[in-house]
Amino acid sequence: MQLHKHGLLDALCGEYLVGTLRGAARRRFERALREEPLLRSRLDAWQRFAPVPAVSVTPSPAVWQRLERDLGLAPRRRSRGWRPWAWAAAAALLIALGVQLTRERPLELAQVAELSGKDAATVGAFVSRDRRTLILRASRPTSAPANRSFELWLIPAEGGAPLSVVVLASLDARLAVPDAYVDRLRAGATLAVSTEPAGGSPTGQPTGPVILAGRISG
Amino acid sequence: MSTAARDGRSAEAFRRLYEMSASLLLGAAQRILGRRELAEEALHDAFARIWHSAASFDPLAARPLAWMVAIARNRALDLRASHDVSRVESSAEFDDVLSHQPADPVEIRRLRDCLGRLEAPQRQAIALAYDRGLSHSELAAHLGKPIGTVKAWVRRGLASLRACLEGLHATP
């Protein structure tokens, strides 16, 4: 195999991004990253191709509160441990990040429900900020049994009959939310999956066993 | 600028940085850890590290988010190794991650294209390591191959990938 002259550095950068560089080897790499501009530039070249995370999950406020405390950022304790470069470094990073996110804003998804049931994979339900995209991600790949389909239902917060959202061949899915359902896809409503004859329920209401259900929380 | 004023503005810039990116970093950590409370632990540790390493960040770097995500992912991998996070059952493919890319910037198209050119075992090993956070030894167990073999797959796959991404020809 022919590697060009930065072959070893590139291999280390690649393993660092993929996640197979571990333990002492990673710590040495991170130290070198702080000290070697060449290594930083090789890593940056790799990072041009790094995908943006597929899903965003809103952290609980406790995480920031802990950071404020641990890093001494809280207004009254601010004087502890601050270095002169801190403002410039944080600001430079902020501006660069702002430029990147403006240019390639990812679809902002928040997890709104976890669907669970007996004998089935757990399924996370994620919704875009405008509630027009719904993504289901199963904890393990699950396809509908032979000659059956899965069907996703929305049970409105105010009650009433389940509304059919989509017929699915597997529990991993990405779909456009029908206009009429956008406003109903909110806290208090329930998402459920039933197993139906191939092609979906013949009656418009669930006819087979409900294998998964979860209430929308956010 | 007085020290207090400068410190105040640093804290403000850092807070905004957190607000803009924390949910994405948490998404990346949760993908590896599965468990929310562990993922938040990784998020906290990653931002502490970002704060301490901000001075060595190159402001001309193209994609700061990638730099931050790599820090969060690696912290999540450390936590995954030290906690009993359930083992992976499924096989992973990059299509899963790549299909969620909102826009289709030229770099992502290029990445998809170059991944498609890798030999299947190399691509699978890299995909499992990236998407599910498997270590070399976990990859070896999962794929039923000696550790030396999977290490070579990852290493050679990355070399070919890099050559392809840069438009060079890899000689296998």
What are the defining features of this structure?
heterodimer, A: 218 residues, alpha+beta, Immunoglobulin-like, 3 domains, 8 strands, 32% helix, 23% strand, B: 172 residues, mainly alpha, Rna Polymerase Sigma Factor, Chain: A, Arc Repressor Mutant, subunit A, 2 domains, globular
Report what the structure shows.
The complex is a heterodimer of chains A (218) and B (172). Chain A has three domains: 7-50, no CATH class; 55-106; 109-215, Immunoglobulin-like, CATH 2.60.40. Chain A has six helices and eight strands; from the N terminus they run αααααββββββαββ. Chain A has helices spanning 7-18, 23-35, 37-47, 61-70, 85-103, 179-182; strands at 109-115, 123-128, 133-138, 148-155, 163-168, 173-176, 190-197, 210-215. In chain A, the strands form two sheets. A four-stranded antiparallel beta sheet of chain A has the order 1-2-3-6, with no helix packed on it. A four-stranded antiparallel beta sheet of chain A has the order 5-4-7-8, with no helix packed on it. The model of chain A has no long low-confidence stretch (mean pLDDT 82). Chain B contains eight helices and no strands. In chain B, helix 5 (106-117) packs across helix 8 and helix 7 packs across helix 8. The longest helix of chain B is centred in the N-terminal third of the chain and has 31 residues, at 3-33.
